[in-house]
Amino acid sequence: MNKQPDRIIIFDTTLRDGEQSPGATLNVDEKLTIATALARLGVDIIEAGFPYASPGDFEAVQKIAEAVGIEGGPTICGLARATQQDIKAAAEALKPAAKKRIHTFLATSDIHLEHKLKKTRQEVLQIVPEMVAYAKSLVEDVEFSPEDAGRSDPEFLYQVLESAIAAGATTVNIPDTVGYLTPSEFGALIKGIKDNVPNIDRAIISVHGHNDLGLAVANFLEAVKNGARQLECTINGIGERAGNAAMEELVMALHVRRQYFNPFLGRPADSTEPLTNINTKEIYRTSRLVSNLTGMMVQPNKAIVGANAFAHESGIHQDGVLKHKLTYEIMDAESIGLTNNQIVLGKLSGRNAFRTRLKELGFELSETDLNKAFLRFKEVADKKKEITDWDLEAIVNDEINTA
Ligand code: KIV
Ligand code: ZN
């Protein structure tokens, strides 16, 4: 029997579902840079890609498995449809990783069965255990997802999950693929699974959700209250259509409100133990890196990492915060690494510090471009004592990307 963990496992899918955002393609080196940042951030599992989907994805998963999936590092995961060729490709790409997981999926909603897969429920009940068992013959750690679980018949879903666990799935992931559910419905779905899947204690319950109605994060928090212990999310909430649940929002909600969540994880309410392994101080710079490399801007009013998330515009708010921060702030900017990172360089900073900071923000410049940007930086630094990350991004975008 698998003891349910008393903390929340963070499964990052920025490099798989996140990369499915329209226009957000990443090359192998960029994926490697992001995977390195995710490991530094402290995510437990990195879903590095979909190896069968393209040679580029195969190579990226393999390189990440080799360079980031080292002893003591995160588990590296590859996605696979419930077919032998997909599962085999995932196992092959993941070989170099110290800890590896195959994530295989098959839809269970009637809409998907009838219109997309042209399969019967009976066929699904046959394929799922067969393919989970096949994945299990290649790696120890297997995750199964019934795609579109949110719109599936719960009784059928219970049967499919039971068969996946019996065949060796160690994590069962419940996707709200089209972001359709409301928080109370998602909570009830997880509770239903806990109460009705006889062997559920042998697996970890995970959740995956999209933000079509802007409810993904709220849905996950309700799922945690009902027994989910793994959250699948992306940096800045990037992903298909309106995106996936945003990691920074989930992690900070669990961090700031941990006394509220503690009892749901079987801890004393006043426990100060963190609920995730995430080093929250790495959140801000990871967010900037992902935004710069994917070209997906973060909206200014985005929770946690938006440019205005810690800004106070009105006189009343400014006055309040100056008197006592807690009047209008529920968390410290420093807790996401903002203050340290915001003011990073000044007019006395050297070329090396400049290059290093740009690299951390996702900009790898040629020597010529670096020289151009550095000259511009010195001009700006002469006028403006403190240079922020936003200034640095503006310098690169003005001097290089639009030149
Ligand atoms: O949204 C979804 O259902 C997925 C699955 C592959 C887990 O991304
Ligand atoms: Zn998804």
From TrEMBL:
One of its GO terms (molecular function) is manganese ion binding. Pathway: Amino-acid biosynthesis; L-leucine biosynthesis; L-leucine from 3-methyl-2-oxobutanoate: step 1/4. Its cofactor is Mn(2+). It comes from the Bacteria. Residues 8-269 form the Pyruvate carboxyltransferase domain. It catalyses: acetyl-CoA + 2-oxoglutarate + H2O = (2R)-homocitrate + CoA + H(+); 3-methyl-2-oxobutanoate + acetyl-CoA + H2O = (2S)-2-isopropylmalate + CoA + H(+). Keywords: Amino-acid biosynthesis, Branched-chain amino acid biosynthesis, Cytoplasm, Leucine biosynthesis, Manganese, Metal-binding, Transferase. One of its GO terms (cellular component) is cytoplasm. Coiled coil: none annotated. Its EC number is 2.3.3.13. It is an enzyme of class 2 (transferase). Catalyzes the condensation of the acetyl group of acetyl-CoA with 3-methyl-2-oxobutanoate (2-ketoisovalerate) to form 3-carboxy-3-hydroxy-4-methylpentanoate (2-isopropylmalate). Belongs to the alpha-IPM synthase/homocitrate synthase family. LeuA type 1 subfamily. This is 2-isopropylmalate synthase. It comes from Hydrococcus rivularis NIES-593.
